[in-house]
Structures are given as structure tokens and as C-alpha cells.
Design a protein that fits this description.
This is DUF2243 domain-containing protein. InterPro entries: DUF2243_membrane. This protein is mainly alpha-helical. The chain has one domain. The protein is built from four helices and no strands. α3 (about 85-110) runs antiparallel to α4. It starts with a helix and ends in a 12-residue tail after the last helix.
Length: about 160
Amino acid sequence: MDLRRFVTAGVILGLGLGGFFDGIVLHQVLQWHHMLTATSPPTSVGSLELNTLWDGLFHVATYAFTIAGVLLLWRAARASDALPPTRTLVGALLMGWGIFNLVEGIVNYHLLGIHHVLDSLPPGLARLALDLAFLALGAAFVLFGRRLIRESEGSVSARPSRVR
């Protein structure tokens, strides 16, 4: 069994699912930020339309990662006589989600400054602390995910017989 194929698939799927969580929970449900709220606050209909468009493009990208991850996972399972333990997939998903948080936080919050975790906070220590906590959560996901994968190396799950 090539564990790398399962881990790669899980990481890519985790990138998509982490992006969906960010977009659905932080953008839509909590409305803490949109893609461009730091540069184009949604104080007018035109600005809200612009932010909604970029949120939609963001969701298209997360959808593409999710589909790619599912397809890669399906291919890895079809090509293997055994399946890795559940913690391998959970670890890979956490790694992908953590990588999403790290890249999104570094690029959007710190390099581009197009939004922050909670854009309604004024610039300062509280907003910076929340942005850094988001990065720390991402790093923790990556490290914990990697630990789960390492702990599961060498063990496999019996594969149920296939019906063709």
C-alpha cells in the first residue's frame, strides 16, 4: 500500500474542507469578514457585492480542492489492496486544514492585508492576537495531523472484498 497517495489525497481534501469551514462559518454565519473587508469594507451595496463576488470565487477554489481530494482518495483506494487506518485520513485532513489556515492567514492577513479574522476589531493588539491565534491553530492542526499519520504508519485495515 502506498500511504503517500492516501495522505496526499487527505491533505488536498483537508485544504478544501478547511476553506469551506472558513467561508461558511467565518464569512457567512458569523460574518466576521469577507475576502476584501479590510480593503473594501461592506459599507455600501457595491462594496458588499464586490466582497460577495470574491467570497464566491473563494468557494469555487475550495470546491475544486474538495473535488480533487475526493477523486484522489477514490483513486488511492481503488489502487490499493488495503486501506490505511482511519487516523491516517484524519491526520491528513487536519494537516490540509492546518496548511489552509497557515497559507490563508499569512497571505491574506499579513502579506496582502485584505482581511483579518475579525475585521470589525480596530487595528491593534486584539486583532493581531486573533490573527496569530488563527495561525497557531493552523500550526497545531499540521503538527497533530502529522503525529496521527506517524502513529498509524505500518498498520493497515483489512479491505472488504470488492463487488464488481
